[in-house]
Amino acid sequence: RELTARDRAMEDPEGSSQQLSGPSAVLKARKTKGVDAGAQPKAVSPVKAWDSDASSVSAESENDPVAATVVPFDPVPPPRPLSVRSRAPDDGTASTSGKENEKEKELRVCSVTWNMCGRKFPSNLEPMLAPLFGRGDDGDIVRGWSAADDDEDGIDTPCDILVVGVQEAPAMDGFVEGLLAALGGDDEFVHLAGVSLEPGGWIQMEVFLRRELLPFVSDVRRDAVSCGIGNVFGNKGSVGVAFTCAGAKLCFLNAHLAAHTEKVKQRNADYHRIVRTMFAPRGGGKNGKSSSSNMARRPKAKANAVAPADAPDETGALKPQTPIDPQRPTPETPSLFKGLLKRRAWTAADGFDMCVFMGDLNYRVEGNRRAVDVLLENRMMDVMLANDQLAIEKAAGRVFSGWSEADLKFPPTYKLNRGTADVYDTSAKQRVPSWTDRVLWRTKAGGKVRCNDGADVYTSAKGIRTSDHLPVVARIKTTIHDATLAAIQRGGHLNTGSRSRLCSVM
Hints:
Blueprint: E1 10-11, E2 17-18, H1 59-63, H2 65-69, E3 102-115, H3 126-129, H4 147-152, E4 161-167, H5 175-182, E5 189-198, E6 203-210, E7 217-226, E8 237-245, E9 248-256, H6 264-277, H7 292-297, E10 311-312, E11 318-319, E12 335-336, E13 341-342, E14 354-360, H8 369-377, H9 381-386, H10 389-395, E15 437-443, E16 449-450, E17 455-460, E18 472-484, E19 498-503
Parallel strand pairs: 3-4, 5-19, 9-14
Antiparallel strand pairs: 1-2, 3-18, 4-6, 5-6, 7-8, 8-9, 10-11, 12-13, 14-15, 16-18, 17-18
C-alpha cells in the first residue's frame, strides 16, 4: 500500500483534518523462519491425554449423560452470539453537549499471558487468539476471522482492547506485526504501547486497541518493578501500562513471580511489592498525599521513581518522559502522629477504575506427581482445584484479596512437553501439572467500570505449542459508566506504537 492506516487522516471533534504523527504503529517486518511445532515426543506421559476436539470424543461418552456430568472442563468455549451495540462514529466525532456526551460504553477487554520459555514465537499467531473469536481449536489450523466480517453483520468485535503479556521472552522482532495481522490488520487495530523490563527483556507487554477508540484514550503511562535477587535482576517482577479510556482509568500488569512449589511466601511478597509500587504516586501516600511528618521521616524518593504520563513534545507527538527505576523500594505505609496511626497505603488494585493482573504467577498444585497423574486420568479436577496454591492463599486473604477470576475449566497449562498440548513433563524432574498462568481483575468500589458479567472466555490456546506453557486467554466484559465519549483534545495525536525499555540495573 502507498499509505498505511497510521498515515490516514483522522477527524477531530471540530471536523478539521489532522495527520497522525510519530512512528508507525507497525514495526518493519523481519524475515523469520516458521517454527516447526514438531512431532509428539516418543516418551509417553502417564497422564491420560486431554482431548478437546469434539471429533475425538467417543460415541459412548458423548451419548452418556452421566459421563458428561463428571467432566468439569470446557477447554474451548462454544461460539457465543455477540451483542449489538452502538459505536462511536468512524470519524471520531461525538456530541459534546448534555446527555449525548455521557453514556455507558461497553468494552471487551482481552488479556493473554504466555511464558515463552525463551523460544521463538510461531509466524502465525492466530491460534493464540482463536478462543476470543468463538472458533474451535483445530491445533495449528484456525478458521479465519477479520473485524470486517463482524462489521458487515452489524455485530461488534469480540475484542476492543487486547493486552498480551509474555515472560521468559526471546528476541521479539516481528511480534507486534504478527499480533496485528491476527487481529485483522492495522486498519482495525493500533498498537498503543509496549514495555519491557531490562536488562534481558524477559518480561514484556504489548497493548492494542480498536482504532476507533484511539480518540478517547489519554494519559498513557508505563512502569516496571523488579522482584529478582535484591530487587535488582529483571528475571522476576512486573511491567505495567495504564491509560484513561472514555474517562475510565485502566491498568494492566504482567508479572512473573517466584518459581518452585515451596516459594509460596515469596510469591505473595512479590505480589504485594508489585501492587504497592507500580504507578505509586510521588511520596507513596494514598492519592499522592503524604503528611509532612511522614515525608520528613522518609528518605527522599528518586526523581524518576514515579511513572509520569507521556507528555507531548513541540510537535504535539507524545514521548516517554524520564526512565523509571524498577529497583526503587516499596513505598512505606503512610502514617500520622509519628506512626501512631496508619493510613491506607497506595495499591494499583485500588488506584484505578479497573486493574488486570496477568502472568506466570507460578502458584502450583500441592501434591506429588503420581497422585496428580491419577487425578488427571480420572478427571477429578475438583480435588486438584482444592489444592491450588493461589486459591488457598486467596481464600486466606494473604494475596489477591478482592480480585476476581473466572472458573478454571481448562486443563493445567504447565509443564508440558514442548510441541504438545496434553503431554505433561516426562523429564526426570516430573513437575506437577499446575495452573501457573492466570488472569485476574479488580474494579474500584464506586469507580466507573463494572464487570457484572465477568469473563465469558477463560481458557488456554492449544494451537501454540512452542513452549512448555500454553498461553492463557481471557475476555472480560466491562461497562464504563458515565463514559466520556467526546474525543480527547490534544495538540497532536497519540504516539501509538511507542514503547519503553526499563532498565533494572543502573
